[in-house]
Amino acid sequence: MSPSFRKPFMGVLIALALWALWWFIPSEEERIRRVLEQARASVSSEGKPADGLALLARVGQLTQCLTRDVEIQVDVFGGLSGNLSGVDEVRAAAAGMTQQFPGLKVQLSEIQISELMPTSAKATVVATINTGSRNGQTAQEFELRFRKWEGRWYISKIATVQALRTR
After folding, report:
1. How far apart are CA 113 and CA 3, in angstroms?
2. Which helix (H) or strand (E) holds 28?
3. In sequence order, what are the residues at sequence separation of 6 or more whose Cβ sits closer than 8 angstroms to the Cβ of residue 153?
4. Residue 80: alpha-carbon gap to chain centroid
5. Going from the N-terminus, what domains does the chain have, and what CATH number goes with each?
6. Cα torsion 143, 147, 148, 150: sign
7. pLDDT tens digits, residue range 121-155?
8. Is the pTM of this model over 0.90?
9. DSSP string for residues in 40-74
10. 137-149 and 120-130 beta bridge pairing
């Protein structure tokens, strides 16, 4: 290869390598969104087996998204409210909720990630919750706090912001 082509060729290769790194290595914001999606998928039970092992697997998947000292303060429009402290309380509540609402479906929208620091972040999320019961579905805004530990993001706090609407 002649010297006149070598520099542009190397420039193109470097640009291509940087683009590939950007494309395949997710940003911190994308990593937080993946944790949110994992938590959402583990809570939603619609169309999933309701046997004991499947339930344990989904609850285990949820607890992998949480810190050991997670705090949850929920006041959902339509009746569900309470405070949970620690991953063991969340595990028990999630198992009970999944059994009580076998058609539970959760969808996330309007995800806004802010206060992104090296080891902490805040996310505001609108969750549409459909229990499959007569009350229909509820849209609820939540504020989540994240902590980063050993290179991975975990949810450390979930709190209700406001009830948006019911159908």
Report:
1. 47
2. helix 28-43
3. 28, 31, 32, 35, 121, 146, 147
4. 20
5. 27-166 (3.10.450.50)
6. negative
7. 999 999 887 776 666 677 788 999 999 999 999 99
8. no
9. HHHH--TTS--SHHHHHHHHHHHHTTEEEEEEEEE
10. antiparallel
